[in-house]
Amino acid sequence: MNKKLRKIPFEVQAMMKRNEFWEIIFYIHKNKISTYKSICDEFRVNEGLIDDIVQLLSLHHMHIEVTNTNSDKTIELVQAPIVEVNIPLVNWIALQTSLNDREIELPQVAIEGINQQLKTEIVRLEDYDLEKIYQRNEKIFQELNGQNINKYLLDKIEEGIENKIALSIKKNDAITVEVFPHKLVFLQDDLNLICENVKERTLMALKIDKIYGITFSLELNYSQNFADAQIEDFISAIRGVDDSEIRLVLKIYDLSLDFLNPKYIYMKDPCIIENIRGERIWAATLDNSKSMLDWLDTIIDRVEIVEPYSVEEELLRHRKKINKKKAA
After folding, report:
1. Residue-level pLDDT at 147
2. Cα dihedral angle (18, 20, 24, 27), rounded to 10 degrees?
3. pLDDT band at residue 134 using 50, 70 and 90 as cut-offs
4. Angle at 201 between CA 199 and CA 202, to 5 degrees
5. Cα(325)–Cα(328) distance, rounded to whole angstroms?
């Protein structure tokens, strides 16, 4: 079975690791008719995740209709196929025994028998073979790119940061850690939560893609142990290991400056000056990474790269790669 699961796209695997993913699926299946608002309120997720789940269920031959009703959306599960699986009696007895009494440990011969029969049934039920479903719809999962999957986790983290609430975080390695959140930042293109380990009272960086569950630890009366300057030094120290920091200098043509504060890109010592020609020059120290290039790509018609010149060359190569992918 594991061999099959490894071929499921990363974006889908990431969803399947979330408790909310399964809770929402069974919620939709049980209620038949539900609304986006009811799901958002019940599971504290964003609408993007619900869109992805509805799309996944539709690919799995579930007839789902989504209609706009006032300021909300209604999900109606019109039809959900019933899958009939043929299992030999000996395997069925072993499976019942395992389900009825978790303390009974089945012998290897029984486990292998059940697994082999399930693999046989997956081949027989070709229309419901997960691997083939994802292969047929590969482009859809490439477009997902994980943004909506992580969005509801980020919403919880940002709420914790804004309200100074400690978080209980479940990681993919089955370890739970309680933290006090400070910032969400990209470190060499991996989105990280910069936080304090409540137990050890030390700073740490947690990769978001290693997190699969978050709850608020409202009962913890934890006081912030590190000042903002210490947190900034911690981020710079991590980036210093890879020697990835650069001082980016831009000439600004747009009167608005909002675009100079991209989300999750940490900038150290940003400043703006006006030279003798009346030109506005902006500078900041940041991570020389794909995330930086993605951001520059969105604002390049409003700025000019002054230093370092190598960034302009990197951006040109980056844009060629993007255009090549779009054309493919």
Report:
1. 44
2. 120
3. low
4. 120
5. 5
Residue 40 Ramachandran class (φ > 0 left, ψ -120 to 50 alpha, else beta): alpha
Query: CA 210, 213, 219: angle at the middle one, nearest 5?
Result: 125
Helix 309-327 / helix 290-299 crossing angle, nearest 10 deg = 80
Token look-up 């844009």 returns: 319
Whether the pLDDT of residue 296 is over 90: the answer is yes
Strand 63-69 vs strand 167-171: parallel, antiparallel, or unpaired? Answer: unpaired
DSSP letters, 24-86, are HHHHHHHHSEEEHHHHHHHH---HHHHHHHHHHHHHTT-EEEEEEETTEEEEEEEE-PPPP--
Mean pLDDT, range 83-98, rounded to an integer? 83
pLDDT above 90 (res 180): yes
Q: Which two tokens stand for residue 266?
A: 């940490």
Pairwise pLDDT comparison (269 vs 120), residue with the higher score: 269
pTM (whole model) above 0.90: no
Output the DSSP codes for 189-219: TEEEEEEEETTTTEEEEEEGGGEEEEEE-TT
**Average pLDDT, integer, range 202-214:** 86
Q: How far apart are CA 65 and CA 33, in angstroms?
A: 10
One-letter amino acid for residue 180 of the chain: F
DSSP 178: E
Q: Give the whole-angstrom CA distance, residue 163 versus residue 168.
A: 15
